[in-house]
Amino acid sequence: MSHSRFPRDSGLTARMGITMFLLGLLYVVFFAILISTGLSFGFVIVLAAGLLFAQFWYSDKIALYSIRAREVSRAEYPELHGMIERLCALADMPKPKVAVADIDLPNAFATGRSPNAAAVCVTTGIMRRLEPAELEGVLAHELSHVAHRDVAVMTIASFLGVLAGLLIRMGLYSGMMGGGRSRGGDRDQGAPAFLVILLVSVVVYAVSFLLIRVLSRYRELSADRAGAVLTGAPSALSSALVKITGEMGSIPTRDLRSAEPLNAFFFTPAISSGFSLSSLFSTHPSLEQRLAQLRDIEADLGRR
């Protein structure tokens, strides 16, 4: 965690530590089983490590490119730059790059491996819909992610899931192409090892998926809390949450689906209201849970 003035969150630190420990334990078990089956998986590891390196070092550029955002100057968006500069001064942290995506989807996100290599992006849709105090609350939330190095932690945590997913795809492809056949032509000889690898990969992917979702939901609650305390205006952040969540229903389903890959980064996930698999496995807590926490913070600040 960086030495900013955002309130320290021992709960977030503990959850990050526990999640990384459990994921590390999964690494050990996963590779031990792969080695015991005699799988030559060097290429897969190199490929997955390459993806991890690219995502870690170029996450800001990848995320901004995927939503067609561009870095903007102070002359283009003076109010936006002014808000971020004031919040960074309050938080005693370096100012990140400022980017804007010209899309109607009302959202914002932060990306980058560290406070010194970060970017905060907002859409034109969110700027049109929110009042200045509401937008400031959203920006404080995103700057909290930067200060707590959330993007770097989540990138590293997701590595095992990426590797397991690659093995699942390669295993299925190998099975369809007759990859279970041994060198001597005995089709059944390689089948047990193939099935073990496929089954273990599926289990590891599922467990890592759930662990990362649990960490991600608490991470969002922590950013809400830190942003509300920094600005001293939890009600403004609550209002922004209600507005943005309500406006998601007016966004075409096609646009929501195209934005889904960035849901883990977004201030609020790009999903339609109501129950769905996307909401069940969401990277964010429910709107009700976020609003309840902000009400508690508002009451606590009122008693001080």
Topology:
Elements: H1 10-36, H2 42-66, E1 69-71, H3 78-91, E2 97-101, E3 108-114, E4 117-123, H4 124-129, H5 132-147, H6 150-157, H7 159-176, H8 191-231, H9 234-247, H10 253-259, H11 277-280, H12 287-303
Parallel strand pairs: 2-4
Antiparallel strand pairs: 1-2, 3-4
Written overview of the protein:
The structure is a single chain. Helix content is 65%, strand content 7%. The chain has 304 residues and is of the alpha+beta class. The protein has one domain. The chain has a 4-stranded mixed sheet with strand order 1-2-4-3, sandwiched between helices. Helix 5 packs across helix 9 (234-247) and helix 9 packs antiparallel against helix 12. 37% of the residues are buried. Residues 180-185 have low confidence and may be disordered.
Quick description:
The chain has 304 residues and is α+β, with helices and mostly antiparallel strands.
Task: Name its key features.
alpha+beta; 4-stranded mixed beta sheet; 4 strands
Number of domains: 1
Beta-strand residue percentage = 5-15%
> In total, how many beta strands?
4
- Oligomerization category of the chains in this entry: single chain
